[in-house]
Structures are given as C-alpha cells and as structure tokens.
Amino acid sequence: MPKATTKLRVRQTINTFRALEKDLQKEAQNHLAKFGTILRRNIKARARVGKTGRLKASPTKRTNRDKTRVTINTRIKGTSRQYSPFEEFGVKRGPRKRSAHPFIFPAMEEIAPQFIRGVEQISAKSIRRASVSNTASV
What is the pLDDT of residue 112? Predict the structure, then answer.
C-alpha cells in the first residue's frame, strides 16, 4: 500500500473519531442537563413547605458554560440563607433542635439508577459507532 494512501486513511480515521467524540460529548451533555432538571423537580417535590414555602420554591438549576456540570442551588431566593442543610441533616445542638427531614439525597438516590443506565447506553452506542466506522475505514 502506498504511503500517501496510508496517510489518507489514518487522517480519515482520526477525523471520524473526532466526529464521534463530539457526538458523544453532545449526547452526554444533553443527558446531564435532562437529569439536572429531573433532580431539581424531585428535590422540589420532596422539600417540606414550612411556614413560608420558600425552601420548596428555592431549588434552581444552573449549567456551566461548557455544559459539563449541573449545579442545583437550594439557597433561599432573595437572601443569603441556606436552610437546606438544616432540613436535610437536622440540628442537634442549641436552642433550635430539629430532626432531619432528608429531601436532597433521597431525590438523588431515586434517579441515580436511571442516570447510570443512560450513561451506559450512551457509552455502548458510541463504542458501536466507533467500531462500525473503524471497520468501514479499513
């Protein structure tokens, strides 16, 4: 096989894998964003209403610029107050002893199996695509 043909095939294979990488990244980003929304909804559904209902209304979802991280913020809107740790874990000392009412971890535990299955499916699909495109270029 001539050297130029080999170089061309290598270049085509590299380009194919780069395209597959972009597809995989986009699918993973979409999956993460989707489950960020589901997690936010689950947290809101599990939060206790309390006197003002502000804790239940507080969860917000934020995605970083390159869409590789989703943050769920439970800080009370319009204030710097963070009630969720006290609700989640309780308060054992001081004048305001409270028992724990977990709502964040149970919400995460509920959707974790679905999230992991989705990641496994995305990975398997990208491996199949890579093997098909690699055999096609040979």
Answer: 94
CB burial readout 66-76, b (16+ within 10 A) else e: eeeebebebeb
Residue spans of the domains in the chain: they are 26-124
Q: Which of 121, 133, 109, 116 is nearest to 27 (CA)?
A: 121
Helix 3-46 and helix 104-137, axial crossing angle in degrees, nearest 10: 160
The one-character DSSP state at 97 is -
Beta strands in the chain (DSSP E): 60-63, 70-73
pLDDT at position 79: 64
Report how many helices (DSSP H) and strands (DSSP E) the chain contains, helices first: 4, 2
Structure token digits, residue 91: 């308060």
Q: Measured between alpha carbons, how far is 17 from 129 in angstroms, rounded to an integer?
A: 9
Q: Is the pTM of this model over 0.70?
A: yes
79 φ/ψ sector (left φ>0, alpha ψ -120 to 50, else beta): beta
User: Is-contact 109 43, C-beta < 8 A?
Assistant: no
